[in-house]
Design a protein that fits this description.
- It is built from 8 helices and 5 strands.
- It has about 230 residues and is α/β, with parallel strands linked by helices.
- α1 packs across α7 and α7 packs across α8.
């Protein structure tokens, strides 16, 4: 099997994407980031997924984006709660982390080169996260073009790097349905932007709201525990 680097946050989307990569015949090599996020419990979720799904390679990279701030996920700014779907689609939310996907993909690109892998899976979504500039298809195409120019494998390799974004045009409901078909255990995942001290999801941030609605649309309960 060809190796593929999979960006694994520990959330619902990345867990589904990990299963998709394996289903498509790749040998997934997961990469997870501890970047100063307030929802650091997702890293434990990523470890649970790697263990349960029998992923042999899992790289954890640590750096601190709190030094720059600018996001509710890496500073003391309040995480928005109880927003409607329409409100979530208005503008760039305060939970956007400046240049985060570019930073993540740069690390993933270096990891892929070291593994001689020509495939990277990233769980960006242009529907649920329409306000995030680094989740748009045009951004992915631009990064892919840059990666092919900026790497040794891109210059000398026989196969160009491909960025896979299987979730980019899927609704949360469709993502969950896909994962259920691939036997993803969503009880292992963590999506909340602002979990409590015990790790329980808040149930009202944008990530929780989208997740809960996705499970409702599939006619099943979310298997993780919530404060509310």
């Amino acid at each position: 099997m060809s190796k593929a680097v999979v960006l694994l946050s520990g959330g619902l989307d990345s867990a589904t994407m990990l299963a998709i990569a394996r289903h498509q015949g790749f040998e997934p090599c997961a990469i997870t980031f501890r970047y100063g996020q307030r929802h650091v419990v997702e890293i434990e979720a990523a470890r649970r997924l790697v263990k349960t799904m029998d992923i042999s390679e899992h790289l954890e990279v640590e750096f601190d984006l709190r030094a720059m701030g600018g996001s509710a996920l890496t500073s003391s700014l309040a995480v928005p709660k109880g927003r409607s779907a329409a409100e979530m689609r208005e503008g760039i939310p305060v939970t956007y982390v400046p240049a985060r996907n570019t930073i993540f993909l740069s690390f993933a690109l270096g990891y892929a080169e070291s593994l001689k892998a020509n495939h990277i899976f990233v769980g960006v979504n242009a529907l649920d996260y329409a306000g995030y500039p680094d989740c748009r298809p045009e951004y992915i195409r631009a990064f892919e073009s840059m990666a092919r120019l900026a790497t040794k494998s891109g210059v000398e390799g026989d196969e160009p790097l491909t960025l896979h974004t299987p979730l980019i045009q899927m609704t949360k409901s469709q993502i969950i349905a896909c994962g259920l078909e691939l036997n993803v255990d969503y009880s292992l995942t963590s999506s909340c932007y602002d979990p409590g001290e015990t790790g329980l999801a808040c149930g009202t941030c944008d990530a929780c709201s989208l997740r809960l609605e996705g499970f409702r649309e599939n006619g099943i309960n979310d298997p993780v525990a919530y404060h509310s």
